[in-house]
Structures are given as C-alpha cells and as structure tokens.
Amino acid sequence: MYRRLLQFLLPYKGKLFIAMAAMVVLAACTAALAWVMQPMLDEVLSGKNKTYIYLVPIAIIGLYIIKGTAFYTQASIMAFIGQRIIYDIRKKIYAHLTAQSLSFFTHRKTGELLGRITYDVTLLQGAVSTTVTSLMRDVMTIIFLLGVIFYQDWLLALLSLIVFPIMVLPIVRFGQKMRQASYDGQVSMGHMSSLVEESIGGIRVVKAFGMEKYERKRFKNITTDFMTHQVKALKVQALSFPVMEMVAGLGIAGILLYGGLRVADGEATAGMLMAFIVSLLMLYDPVRRLSRANNEIQQGLAAAERIFDILDAPIDVKDPEEAEPINKFSTEINFKDVCLTYPNASNPVLDHIDLNIKSGEVVALVGRSGAGKTTLANMLLRFMDPTQGGIDIDGRDLRSITQNDLRNQMSLVTQEIVLFNDTVLHNIAYGHEDIDREEVIRIAKIANAHEFIDKLEQGYDTLVGERGVILSGGQRQRLSLARALLKNAPILVLDEATSSLDTESERLVQQAIDKLMLGRTVLVIAHRLSTIRNADKIVVLDEGEIVQIGSHAELLEQGGIYAELYALQFGD
Length: 572
Ligand SMILES: Nc1ncnc2c1ncn2[C@@H]1O[C@H](COP(=O)(O)OP(=O)(O)O)[C@@H](O)[C@H]1O
Ligand SMILES: [Mg+2]
What we know:
Elements: H1 2-9, H2 13-35, H3 37-45, H4 52-99, H5 102-106, H6 110-152, H7 154-161, H8 163-201, H9 203-208, H10 212-264, H11 270-311, E1 332-340, E2 350-358, E3 362-366, H12 373-380, E4 388-393, E5 396-397, H13 403-408, E6 410-414, H14 424-428, H15 437-446, H16 450-455, H17 473-487, E7 491-495, H18 503-517, E8 521-525, E9 537-542, E10 545-550, H19 552-558, H20 561-570
C-alpha cells in the first residue's frame, strides 16, 4: 500500500526534492539554535569573551530568518503536493467509476461511493502530506539535534537515548488503535451519506408514509455510531500526548540529575549541559509530531484501503485494445444464442436468445414484468456483456467496437427519465459540445416540447432542478425525446417510454415518439400493446426466453401469451 501511495508522489519528484532540501536547511537551523546555547553560556555569561555578546544575538536573528524562509518553502510546496495528489486520486476514482458497467452499481450504494470520493480521500490527503512532511522534516530535525547532543556529551547522549525506545512503543500501539477506529468511522460515514441520499431522494414517499420519525431514528443510529468511533479515535490521540510527555519528562529529569552531577564534578561545562538540554527539549516536538503523524498515517492507510478497493474493482465491460471505427448502422443486428446471468444470481435472466433486427425495422418486445425485456435492451447498448453467446451489429461483435462508437449509433429513451440539474437547453443538448440554439428549438417543436418550454420563466435557460423536479412527467419525457431526436442516431431503443404517463401526456409523447421513430431502426418495449400494433415484428419474451415471434395479427391468431396480454388490456 505504501508503495502504491508513493506512486502518486512520483510525478512531483522535482518539487518534492526542493521541499526536502528546505527541510534539511530547516532542521540544521533548529539544531544550530540549540548549539548556540553553549558559547552563549560558556563564553558570554561567564564573561570570558565580550565579542560574543554581539555575535550570538546576530547569529540567532540570522538563523531565524533562514529557518523561516525554509519553513515557508517546504510548507507551501508540501501543501501544493498534498492537494495535487488528492486531485489526482479523485479524478482517477471518478474516471474509474464512470467506466464501470451497470452491474458494478447494482451492489453499491451511491452514498457509499460518495463517501469514498469525499471523506476517505480527505483523510488520505492528511496522511500523505503529514507523512512526507513529518518523516522528512521531523526525522531530519531529530538527526541534527542528536548530532548536537552527541557532540556536546556522547556519554550523556547515549544515556538519554534509552528513553527513545520507550517512546516508540506507545507510538506503534496508538497507531494500530487509530487505524481501526478510523476505518470504522469511514464505514459509518459511508452509511450516513447513503442514508441521506436515499431518504432525501425519496422524501415524497417518506412523508406520504409518515416515516420521518423512522428515518430520523435510522439516521440517529448511524451518526451515533460515527460519533462513537470519532470519540474513540480522538481519545486515543488525546492519550498519546500525555503519555509521550510523561516519558519525555522522565528523560529530562534523569539527564538533569546525571548531567548536574557531571557539571558539579567539573567533567562538563554548564554551557554544554544547557545546549544539551535545549536540544533535548527541541527534540521533544518533532518526536511528538512523529507520533501524531503515525496516527494520521494509520487513518490514511485505512482510507487508502477503501479507495484502492474501488480502484481495483475490475471493469467488466471494456473497450477492445484496437478497434476499427464503425460506419453508420446499415444492415442488421443479430443476437446469437445470448445468455445472461446477473452476478450473485443463480438463474439466467436471458436464456439462449436468438433475434434478428433488420435495418429500418420496428421490433417490439413484449412480455410480463420481469420477463427480461429491459435486460435485453441493455445488452444491445452493451451495458453488460452476455455470459454466453454474442451480439453482432453489421456483422461485428459488440465487443470488437469501442463503447463510444457503439453508443453513438443509439438513442435510449426509458421510463425513468434522467434530467440533470441544468438548463432546459443543456438537457436537450446533453452530449453536444457546441450547442446550436436554433436547432434545439426546432427539435423541441418536433418533440411537442417547445410550447411548454416557452412558457417557463426563463424559457430554454430555465434550470430544471434536481432530476427535473420543476417539470411534470410528460414534460420531462418530451425533453428526453427531444434529446434523443437531437442525437439523431440510427438505432432507437424505447423502454416503456410512455408507461408512467397519463392519457393526455401519453398522446403528446406518443406523437413525438412516432416522429422520432421515422427512418430509424427501433427496438421498442411497450407496456401498452396498442402502441406497437404496427411493429414489423413482435417478440414475446417469457422468463428470459423468446416464446413467440410474429406480426400482431399472426400472434393474435396463434393464441398464447401475446393474445392473453392483449385480451387483458382490451377486455376482449
Ligand atoms: N441488476 C440486476 N441484478 C439482478 N437481477 C436483476 C437485475 N436487474 C434485473 N434483474 C432481474 O432480472 C429479471 C428481468 O428483469 P428486467 O429485464 O428488468 O425485466 P422486464 O424489463 O421485462 O420487466 C427480473 O427477474 C429482475 O428481478
Ligand atoms: Mg423493464
């Protein structure tokens, strides 16, 4: 894990080098300030050498100026590197997430993923900058200060070093605790975002069922959980401070005793002891910071674990290494013995599907709810790859074409309409880089959308709100049809596009759909059979298998599922 994290530092080697050089200067200045105590005491205060009265203060001022400059240099560079790494990691996670196939998201909660990209990454950032800063600056400072104490009195130095192993013990112990507490905290944070996402997203249902109290209670349980983990982590951190201080105090006491005796015996000068003790005191800070850094590193590692868990998730729908570009769809689509079993499911959802769709045909897919219609349509857009068999478009397997090329050939209109919190204009022109306003208006008119858009407060520049809340279901659907029209792809996939609409909106939407279907190859899944009567071919799907294919008249004559469904809808 360390090595993987270091990889993120690699692009900033140059800057890192400068920061490290500044840290060396900083450490040397700190040590020099301690060392200056000796001439100060032995030469100046004892009255031996008057010129030192001026020299020492000037040296101190000089040292502080250099130290300050070095500090600023390393701190600002490290801040940049820390933020930059987080930026890189976030970008990487988001790119990876958006590259995932649909099945990846079936078992993950949006809020949870959100937590990882926000909270976990921030924890990691703390760890990355502190690690580098502390490990470099503080370790360097410790080395220099140790140099001073060994120079002053090596025997005493050796003695005082006995304290260090005692200090390392709590550092390691606290670190382990911190890591566990932090991991638990991150998991709770994930649950929290997920719950908020879900309950606020479904606030209408929550209110309609009077479930506010219930949701509050669920939320309370999770926040309590989070709080408990946080308090635990902070307590560990709070404890590490006095424990370290106590150990340090013991060390100082011992040195004062032994060192004092040596000065009294004339084996050392007061200045030496002073410089020695000042160095030791100065050592205390970096050592303590190192302990804190360890806690943060442990937190960061716990976060890194969850981040790498996402980054390591394999992408199961991948572009081929080398893909020849594809021409505009012109001949046929072939489902060849396609089987699909969802991950973690035992039974196949699609079972040996063979289906041919000719260019220009309108093929309707009907069947009971849960028959596998949506799944079949999703396969055509390659949201998932078949477990067995394959799908060809113009004689080429979907897996030999880039997803971009493939999906450029298709427009998808579904029952759940996805609008983004942006203007009407941008929602219609989603996916277009330069937007031709006139063209969007022309298309909106065809999609029966212009009239209502025109009546909106700011027309095409009105913000539609999250998921398009300010619009009615029918209006949203007409926007999404305008979007599909503007895309002008040769293949159109309609998945129950009118199912959730009232009769009046359905009429307007259906008119728009009819215009959208003109001159295109269409795979239409419709709940209302009246809308597909004129399809060239009706395919009846039942429990993942094709049970009937034919025209409306043929299927009615045959009897079977289609005739049953039809009778059910029209009370024959
Ligand atoms: N992501 C999924 N993971 C597991 N099972 C799924 C998933 N999506 C759909 N299913 C199951 O596959 C079957 C077919 O679903 P679907 O294609 O949506 O049916 P239809 O669109 O015909 O109503 C259903 O039994 C459904 O429960
Ligand atoms: Mg469906």
